[in-house]
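Weekly sync, protein design subgroup
Attendees: M.S., D.O., the rotation student, P.L. (late)

Item 1: inverse folding check
M.S. brought a backbone from last month's batch and wanted to see whether the design step gives back something sensible before we order anything. D.O. pointed out we never logged the input encoding, so this time it goes straight into the notes. Structure tokens as presented (309 positions):
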């Protein structure tokens, strides 16, 4: 079995010098795993130059971590790198940017980060000059989607081969990006509004568009995106979101997007004393056919990446 997780914030833990890039809880102890390493560069209160400095610092930390942990993990920029890592019995790390605020709206900077290894980008975590995000809008604020500057940014990303992430996109930004992107978009860490009506989750119409286009959706462990009622913020109810995706025809378009180290609380009974992914797979194997487990754990994402990375 192979595992892919399309959103992990562990670089923030590396930044605070508390953890390594690969830790016992964020990578599998049983299976080869590809982790999307998210650099969040649009923090509230940061000015554009602060975001730029953060993007540079995170990139440096990623490169140093890859070098110091080369016995455990290899960098991934293309599908052949995934095959190499798994063949050597190692994990893989794919660098992503969560909020392009740190790129100063610059297509030239976008190219520089692509050359360093970034392959997946979301335009906005908080609304910025590129696009509106799905954070709560101020009174009277209009969801204008992707700006003209943002459209030029997306055009440059398309030329480079960027995969666009819609997890933090506003509803209009989502639809704009579906039209502008030259590759099927992915929602790296989003659940479904039909089960939990949070703006971070996908509507059924959005999910159906991703499925129809051949994109991917990563199930998110953030408890506020699983259920409104606290007692139902559990692994059991997380997989109700998987069931919902299956009813929408997304058996080949759903995977893990756990948001590890980006959430403050994990759904019960998960703990950080063991690999989160191994715990999730153990649960799934008790409730789902093994073929579904294999697809969700990693095969769906690997099939997408083989075609689009």
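Designed sequence read out in the meeting:
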């Amino acid at each position: 079995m192979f595992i892919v997780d399309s959103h992990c914030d562990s670089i923030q833990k590396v930044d605070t010098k508390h953890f390594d890039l690969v830790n016992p809880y964020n990578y599998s102890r049983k299976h080869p795993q590809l982790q999307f390493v998210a650099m969040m560069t649009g923090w509230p209160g940061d000015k554009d130059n602060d975001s730029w400095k953060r993007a540079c610092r995170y990139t440096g930390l990623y490169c140093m971590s890859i070098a110091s942990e080369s016995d455990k993990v290899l960098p991934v920029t293309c599908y052949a790198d995934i095959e190499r890592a798994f063949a050597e019995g190692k994990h893989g790390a794919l660098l992503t940017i969560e909020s392009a605020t740190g790129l100063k709206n610059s297509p030239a900077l976008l190219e520089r980060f692509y050359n360093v290894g970034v392959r997946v980008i979301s335009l906005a975590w908080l609304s910025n000059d590129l696009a509106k995000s799905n954070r709560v809008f101020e009174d009277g604020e209009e969801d204008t989607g992707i700006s003209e500057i943002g459209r030029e940014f997306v055009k440059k990303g398309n030329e480079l081969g960027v995969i666009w992430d819609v997890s933090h996109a506003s509803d209009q930004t989502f639809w704009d990006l579906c039209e502008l992107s030259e590759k099927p978009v992915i929602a790296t860490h989003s659940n479904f509004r039909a089960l939990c009506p949070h703006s971070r989750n996908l509507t059924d119409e959005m999910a159906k568009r991703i499925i129809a286009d051949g994109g991917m959706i990563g199930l998110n462990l953030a408890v506020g995106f699983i259920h409104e009622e606290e007692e139902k913020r559990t692994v059991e109810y997380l997989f109700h979101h998987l069931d919902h995706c299956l009813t929408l025809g997304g058996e080949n378009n759903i995977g893990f997007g756990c948001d590890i180290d980006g959430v403050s609380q994990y759904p019960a009974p998960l703990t950080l004393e063991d690999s989160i992914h191994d715990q999730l797979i153990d649960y799934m194997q008790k409730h789902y056919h093994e073929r579904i487990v294999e697809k969700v754990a990693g095969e769906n994402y690997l099939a997408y990446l083989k075609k689009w990375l």
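Discussion: Strands lie at 3-8, 33-40, 73-76, 91-98, 120-122, 163-165, 186-187, 216-219, 254-256. The radius of gyration is 18 Å.
Action: P.L. to compare against the previous round before Friday.
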